[in-house]
Amino acid sequence: MADLLSFLGAAFFLVFGAHRLAITRGARADSAQRHVSGFALCMGLALVFNAPSVTDRLARDPTLDTLVGLITHDLKLAAFAFLVLVAYSLRSPTAGRRAVRRQVWTAGATLAASVALFLAACPATTSEQLSVSPGHRWALASYSALFAAYGAWCLLVLARELADHVERTAPGLLRTGLRLMMLAAAFGAAWTAWTLDDVISDLSVGHQDIGEDMVSSALGAITALLATGGATATLWGDALGAPVRWLRAYHRYRALEPLWSALHRELPQIALDPSVTDRRPGLPRAEFALYRRVIEIHDGHLALRPYFDSDVARWTAEAEAGDRDRDRHAVLEAATIAAALENKRAGRRCDAAGAPRQAPAAPAPPPVPGTVAAETAWLLEVTAAFTGSPAVADVRRRVRHAVDVSRRDTGRGPGGSGAPGGPGVPRSDADGAGPRTG
């Protein structure tokens, strides 16, 4: 099992590192990607050499086994050094050449000290252990402690820069990838800290295990998986997140149905594609259908401008006391649309062309970022107020009363064609929301 986990982690690191190196070759500006590929390749090779089956084979030649063990240890230290370079490239502004050069010198000194301590320990290699004489225990323990301390420091630097970068990044796949990288750094720190048991073993009994144990192999595989997933989140995240986006878009598309239906009933020309009669688009088409519905609602709003009533703002303010849980801008917008639909249904224009009063310009809604998501969120609030706000219902009643008074003044009774509640207005549509499909 330890073999499987070690090779699994190595495969993740090596494939990812080779892929990053191939796609960034020649890209001088993208130094962070090259540092990431350097880390992945060094760590992947170290995991291969540390696999129990590999260490067992190398143990047949003690000299080769000792040399490979030292190389493996230094590959991990080099991988940690690449992590600091990645962290420096994430800084805003990016770390200068002096800081990068200082880190390279620090990494070189750490590697040199590690080799010196290893040679001073004069370890003897067996099939499973690295052992030293009692007088050299301190050297082997220092060798292991240097690895743990330097690795923990590198991971701490990386985690700090990733946390700062996450705060500066907008929600999305890139931010998800950065969070996965933060988790990888956390598991990597635990993986590094696990080597402290070697320090205790070196000081107490004078030997340490060569290969990765079960815990170390598991932590290495998890770190590899999280690091690879975080660095490639923009590649796989879009494909995996598509069903979630489709479901969300479909739900919002259906939630806008009451407002859209009321507008479409009075203004059928707002439909961008009249041939589309299915109001239940398939999930893959839900995002496009939602985008089209938002445009059609805005078109309907513009087409209703001649029917905007100048008294809506005052009526809404008077009736809004019992509707404080809703956004007042959304309530005003919904009331304006509801009143305009009542006026349109009764043929009662409120513009300068023979209208009972001069209509004001459309009420200005609060500034909304020009994205489909922001526009949809705003229209969902308007739709909720359009169908459920007591203030909007009160405005509808006031407009119908005004229409009735206007008809009586002109000699047209409330039962005449086109009057609210008469043959021109089906009672199922009297609330302004229209029948709900589905």
Walk me through the structure.
- The chain has 16 helices and 3 strands.
- It has helices spanning 2-23, 31-50, 52-58, 62-90, 97-121, 137-168, 173-193, 196-204, 214-231, 233-255, 257-266, 286-303, 312-319, 328-345, 372-388, 390-409; strands at 124-125, 129-131, 207-209.
- Strands 1-2-3 form a 3-stranded antiparallel sheet.
- A hairpin with a 3-residue loop joins strand 1 (124-125) and strand 2 (129-131).
- The protein is rod-shaped and about 115 Å long.
- The two termini are 53 Å apart.
Give me a quick take on this structure:
The chain has helices spanning 2-23, 31-50, 52-58, 62-90, 97-121, 137-168, 173-193, 196-204, 214-231, 233-255, 257-266, 286-303, 312-319, 328-345, 372-388, 390-409; strands at 124-125, 129-131, 207-209. By secondary structure, it is mostly helical.
pLDDT averaged over residues: 77
Note the overall shape: rod-shaped
- Output the helix-strand order: HHHHHEEHHHEHHHHHHHH
Termini separation (Å)?
53 Å
Task: Work out the radius of gyration.
Answer: 35 Å
Write the layout of secondary structure elements.
Layout: H1 2-23, H2 31-50, H3 52-58, H4 62-90, H5 97-121, E1 124-125, E2 129-131, H6 137-168, H7 173-193, H8 196-204, E3 207-209, H9 214-231, H10 233-255, H11 257-266, H12 286-303, H13 312-319, H14 328-345, H15 372-388, H16 390-409
Antiparallel strand pairs: 1-2, 2-3
Helix pairs in contact: 1-2, 1-9, 2-4, 4-5, 4-6, 5-6, 6-7, 6-8, 7-9, 7-10, 10-12, 11-12, 13-14, 13-16, 14-15, 14-16, 15-16
